Every structure is written in C-alpha cells, then in structure tokens.
Amino acid sequence: MNICFIAGASTIHTVRWVNAMANKGHEVSLITQHKEELNSFETNVDVYELPIKNNSGYYLNYPVAKYYINKIKPDIINTHYASGYGTLSRLINFTPTLLSVWGSDVYDFPNQSDIKKDILKKNLAAATEIASTSHVMKKQTERFVNGKEIHITPFGIDLEKFSPDKYKKNLNMMNIGIVKKLAPKYGIEYLIRSFAILVNEKNILDKTNKKIKLTIVGKGEQRSYLEELAKELEIAELTDFVGVIPYNEVPDYLNTFDIFCAPSTLDSESFGVAIIEASACELPVVVSDVGGLPEVVDNGETGYVVPSKDPEALADKLYELIFDQDKRKLMGKKGREKVEQLYDWGKNVDKMEEIYQEMIKKYK
C-alpha cells in the first residue's frame, strides 16, 4: 500500500505508527507542519514539511499539502488529531481518509467555543472513517458525528522492550514512580500530596525497614511548582525529579519502580499508554478514574482505580500495596497478561493495516 500520514512529526505516537507501516514494507510518506526530530523516521519514509508552522497553517498550508498529495498519489490517508490536522485533511478532501482522534481534540477543543465545536464536527464529518484508541473516546467522538464507522485501534507497546527486569530494582528501596509530562492534566501534584500523607500522616518511614522515595520522570511547565510543593510538604529529600529521558530508556526506569501511579485529572487522558507500559513491566498501577485510564486497569486485579484529585484515597491504596508484596506481584503478573492479550503493538499494527486494506477496497 501507499500510505500517507498527515500528522505532527514531533510526537512519538506519529513516529511509531509511521515507522511501523514502513517496516511492514509499505510505501509511506508524512505531511507535517511540525519539524521532524533528528533521525526520527526510517530512511524509507518520505517526510514533507509544510512551510507555515503556527495554527493558521492548518488552513494556509492547504495548497502545498494538496500539491504533495497529488505528487504522492496515496492509496489512503491516515490523519492524526481531529482539530488541527483534521482541518487540513478536510480541506484536502481525499478519499479514503481515516481520521485518528487522540483525546484533547475531542474532549477539550470542542468545549473552548461554539466555533471550535463546529470545526470539529466538520472535520469528523469530512473523514471517510474514524479511529479511536479507546472505547470511552469512541463514545465521546460519537457526540459530534453521526453515521461514521469508528474503529478501536489501541496504541499498544513493544512487549520485548517493555518487560520485567527484577535485577534493576533496589531491594532496600520502595520506589513509587511516574513517567509523564509535568503538566496539570496529569495530576502529579496529587501524587506528591499523597506521598506526603504517607510520610507525614501515616508515618510510613517508621513502619517499614525499607527506604522509600518518589521518582518523577519527565519535563514540563509545572516542574518548578512541583519542586516547591515537595519542599513545602517536607518530602523534597525523598522526591527525585529525574527530568526528561529518551523513550528507549523508559523501560529501564520503570523496572526500578515498585508501584506506578498515574493520577490524571482530565477525561482527555483518553488512553493510558504509560499505564500499559508499566503493566508490561509487571508493576501494580494506581490510576485515577478519568478518561480511558479505567479501561486499561482491572480494578483490584491489575491495580487500583481511585477518584481523581483525591490524595487521601491515593495514599490509602499506595499504603496497602507498600505492605503487601504478594499483592504487588500478583497485580503485576495479571497486568502483564492483560497487556499481552490486548495491547501487543505488533497485533495493533496488524489491525490498523487491515483497516487500511478494507477501506481501500471499499472506497477506491
């Protein structure tokens, strides 16, 4: 197949889908107004950068994008993100086009104004078919479009890269961790507050013969605020802000954790990639009840689901897991089994490939 992606070149989600299809032997191109990171894509991927990089580019780049489409002559277009690139894709008006929604494009964007809600509706209606990474986001998307087939296409993981490695753990340390952007929607403030409850109210340090720490991996606009919060709550010495790491190092960090925590606050957290990465490494997970996070966690089986913005409830579950090694191990193993069944990246790519093939047959 000749597959053309219209998407942001700077996101790992785009990179993984594009490279996966190139590695399957397809002719693959990417049209983007985001600058490609150095050596992001396989050498057999053709990347076409659009000249205008700001939001107006989703409209003003149309003539150049249309020229590239006429040059590429794809069998199918897969557009990622329903608001910005969805607008560009609507103007191109190519059949067949699969529009992949991501989260904030169908949760946050339409709530910002009636104009933006109308833009989203037009973009969804213009697509030939739609793809969603989760069932909960499919339901959200159905609020804005009628009569379109919406496929469930999980954004899975490489189970060889994300696998348990017990030798990376410090047996004398209880390490609670998260790997996320330091932004308000990911609720890291509430993780810090819950950790402070463990230390200052539940006196966890006096009750365990292990050292305990909180590891926060990632960068973002909240870093200074979160560091100051840790100082204010008197847990700064127990909190490690690692900063950003290369994606290929994420499994190494996960395997140093004993518990993974993702207390996100917004429903636009539509699919928990970070959670299934942790589960694949056989970590018990504690997540909030927003968006698609409960969909990737079997509550009480692979981890716990707690109310969002509730550090006390979060601290209670962390406390339980800290003192129950058998439960941590069992939840970790069941989490790995769930990921193997539903979120094997190879199987997810095969499913997307089948959708492309079916759409080409149906609409060409």
Automatic annotation (TrEMBL):
InterPro entries on file: Glyco_trans_1, Glyco_trans_4-like_N, Glycosyltransferase_grp1
Record bears the keyword Repressor: no
Pfam families, sorted: Glyco_trans_4_2, Glycos_transf_1
Domain annotation Glycosyltransferase subfamily 4-like N-terminal: ranges: 3-134
Superkingdom as given in the UniProt entry: Bacteria
Domain Glycosyl transferase family span(s) in chain numbering: 165-337
Entry's Gene Ontology molecular function annotations: glycosyltransferase activity
Keywords recorded for this protein, A-Z: Transferase
The protein's name in its UniProt record: Glycosyltransferase involved in cell wall biosynthesis
Species assigned in the record: Halanaerobium congolense
